[in-house]
Amino acid sequence: MNIKSLLLGSAAALVAVSGARAADAVVVAEPEPVEYVRVCDVYGAGFFYIPGTENCLKIGGYVRYQMNYNDLDWTETDVGPHDYRFWKLARFAPSFDVRSETEWGTLRAFAEVEFDWNSYTWNAANVGTGAAQSTNLNHAFIELTQSNGTLRIGKGDTPYARFLGYGNGNGPFVGSYGFRNSGEVSYTFHGGAGFSAVIAAIESPTGLFEPAVEVGARVSQGWGTVGAMLAYDTPANAWSAKAVARVNMAPFSAGVHVFYSNAVNAYTVDGASRWSVLGHAKVDFNDTFAVAASAQWFDRNLVGGANRYQFIGAIDWKPVRDLRIRPELRYTTGTKAVEAAIRFDRSF
Q1: Chain center to CA of 14
Q2: Which residue segments constitute the domains of the chain, with CATH numbers given?
Q3: How far apart (Å, rounded) are the C-alpha atoms in residues 221 and 5?
């Protein structure tokens, strides 16, 4: 065997081994393209498309810390050696808003959960029970909206509470206005020139098929809103009504609410009054600072009580974006109750 034959044989062996290894090589697949989150501006700021769907989602909510004071002199009941209460509330309330366009209109689902911690609580016998935590499904409803109206099914603040606005505003003390949060089936008609009307069947707390009925109408323009609501409490066989007028003339805004109940029912203002009147006003000095005040009269005729007045004063301060600080003070005649609170809200 000569040198030439040896070299040729070695080269052939190397080619064979290299070919065998190439046959066993792992083939790496090309990476799939990444689908980035897309902004959905159809329904306003904050919405984005859920990847792989045509659903638009907005995640929001707020974190709250509130300190409360209550003078107990009027109750003639002391908490240990003291005649007052001081306690704190911490809350985390995330919300989820999902919307999409369908053949039937805009389909929406909304949910909000409240996770609460109270530094101290009291039972019905006015005995302290210490700190407590709780969870509340505040809202969970589905809506279908077309050009002339909205159908809602689910749980939330009923139309009697929300349709004409929430009392004197959005603070620790909002007055008494027949607030109710429950299951509902409602339809809101959207007419022209700012006119709208609502009709709703509200879940009964008795566990029977005894739905309450709420109906109302309003006109909303740039200057404000005027409207009225009527509610029939089926289990109580009684009804309540209210009329509301709100005026907006920047930097000043004000409102007057008149309430009536023919008997005690779920919508009765303060649970005792046949007639009640609430008035409130607010002055916005700039985009970050405002002061507000309200007064409410209760006749307490349904329980044979004496007339009573309630006065509320508040400061509304927004030092930076998404942060709201609202100290409030409330005084009630008759009971001579003095209550105070300062609320910190960080929304997102």
Answers
A1: 76
A2: 53-347 (2.40.160.10)
A3: 103
